[in-house]
Amino acid sequence: MNVYAINEYDWMIGASLEDCINEYILCYGDPEIIDEPQELTETQLESLTHFVDERDEGGELLKRTFKEQLAIEVATGGDFPRLFTSTEY
Q: Which member of 2, 49, 51, 82 has the greatest number of CB atoms within 10 A?
């Protein structure tokens, strides 16, 4: 599994870029919002931050690298491709 940027605010997880684009269009409609889709590099996976819907003892949202979250998503399993994260939610 890999993480693919679909545009500047949505990322999908799946086996291929083509599968992720097709699923994105199926789920979210408008293909016009797909902008320069690409597989994330190892450097990007290690540098981008994924905010988790969990809080630490101080009430702050937990955060992980995309690489850490990818490992969790793959270990958890489920249906792929699917939305990995978004700045809009």
A: 2
Per-residue pLDDT tens listing for the chain (89 residues) = 999 999 999 999 999 999 999 999 999 888 899 999 999 999 999 999 998 877 777 888 889 999 999 999 999 999 999 999 998 86
Which residues contact residue 2 at a Cβ distance below 8 angstroms, ignoring those fewer than 6 apart? 13, 14, 15, 16, 39, 40, 70
The token pair at 34 is: 């797909």
The rounded distance, in Å, linking the Cα atoms of 79 and 70 is: 14
What is this structure's pTM? 0.89
Backbone angles phi, psi at 6, to 5 degrees: -95, -35
CB 89 within 8 A of CB 30: no
